[in-house]
Amino acid sequence: xxxxxxxxxxxxxxxxxxxxxxxxxxxxxxxxxxxxxxxxxxxxxxxxxxxxxxxxxxxxxxxxxxxxxxxxxxxxxxxxxxxxxxxxxxxxxxxxxxxxxxxxxxxxxxxxxxxxxxxxxxxxxxxxxxxxxxxxxxxxxxxxxxxxxxxxxxxxxxxxxxxxxxxxxxxxxxxxxxxxxxxxxxxxxxxxxxxxxxxxxxxxxxxxxxxxxxxxxxxxxxxxxxxxxxxxxxxxxxxxxxxxxxxxxxxxxxxxxxxxxxxx
Length: 264
Description:
Helix content is 38%, strand content 23%. By secondary structure, the protein is α+β, with helices and mostly antiparallel strands.
């Protein structure tokens, strides 16, 4: 495992103060406001209106325990099966981070970030030459897998939140330059339009899900620019067909990163 990945996970282990360290919520998001995302500040006393808002939150957490990994796996298998795909079970790997979105006790979304290590990326089963091409050009590549989100009124915000937390782990904390993802050809247009991915590998049969796949690539510098430009502006940017207005603001990103690094 590369030294930077080992250092990241070692820091998590050494700063762990209690058995439930990994069970803490990374962020809690309301359809009406963001909660606890920025650096710590003095807060006013809560009122009844705040309590009503709190009932609307969903939370992003790490799928660390066996129970959470199982819950994430069941959501992926259910969503994939509804589309006629197969889904392999989750395999624990220290170079992969699985994020989960909860609404109350229900899992409503999950996403796994895989970082380049001694073990090959899953996408290399079909697209090794394409990924090696990026490495040869000095790019640092991570991948997104096991994406599933229940369709709710807040599904765009849930998906954007999962992507942004994964971006913080990969780009902000580890310095990755590119992210790749294998998607069904029917979903290529969505990833291009909503996130700015570009096609990077031809259509091939993915044995893991028994369905055709296309490799997409996203330069994370583009994500930097979009977050800076429209992050957190979903309520004010009209007519933009993109997920980036549903991302956090740069200020929120700083607070989330601080929390992840320092375990607060």
